[in-house]
Amino acid sequence: MSSDETLVVCRDAALTFGQGPQAVVAVHGADLEIGAGDRLAVVGPSGSGKSSLLHLLAGLEQPTSGTVTRATSLGPYGIGLVFQGDSLIPALSVAENTALPLVLADRSEARARDAALAALALVDAADLADRLPEEISGGQAQRVAAARVLAQEPRLILADEPTGRLDHATGARVLDALLTAADHTGAALVVTTHDPVIAARLTVRRTMRDGRLFAPEEVP
Fold this sequence. Notes:
By secondary structure, the protein is of the alpha/beta class. The chain has one domain (6-218): P-loop containing nucleotide triphosphate hydrolases (Rossmann fold, 3-Layer(aba) Sandwich). The protein has helices at residues 50-58, 94-104, 109-122, 138-152, 168-185, 196-199; strands at 6-17, 24-35, 39-43, 65-70, 79-82, 156-160, 188-193, 204-209, 212-214. The strands form 2 sheets. A 6-stranded mixed sheet has the order 5-6-7-3-8-9, sandwiched between helices. Strands 2-1-4 form a 3-stranded antiparallel sheet, with helices on one face. Helix 2 (94-104) packs parallel to helix 4 and helix 4 (138-152) packs parallel to helix 5 (168-185).
């Protein structure tokens, strides 16, 4: 993997929901490039369009104008997503939740569990492996979500407000886990946040306001 490889490029990418007078523009003409190994924070208040931008980057939404181009080297499992809040399946243990994407990708259960346990250890959550989601805290659940991404070894990690519902100390541990995951796999990491303390720990920061993504020198 080349350190200067470009993984995702947005060119004047916009996302509009609805039509006519009821239309809501979630993202206005965003320009953004994400390269291998990048550490990017997208900062802005709730409702500023950060989640919609992440959905465009991930391919969960298609731009209504402009383009979003992803490198073919990303492949079908090259993007790992960490969502805000609860994302674990209640009936599965922590280890089973972490291993699930690998099992769905036809990895044997034994190999998937081994990878899950290794990923949990890297985010300091190995002792949670046999617990159910209802038996762990919100901060622990977010670390498990990071481990689930780490186990997949993606090229690009997209984390949507992963610390938004946590206190500062717990949020810092979750970000530690995400940075560990990205460093371990060599992945690019994009984190949306409204917390300037979290944003300051990433190398590049971009601000979003009312659906508009500002270049660093244009921050309002």
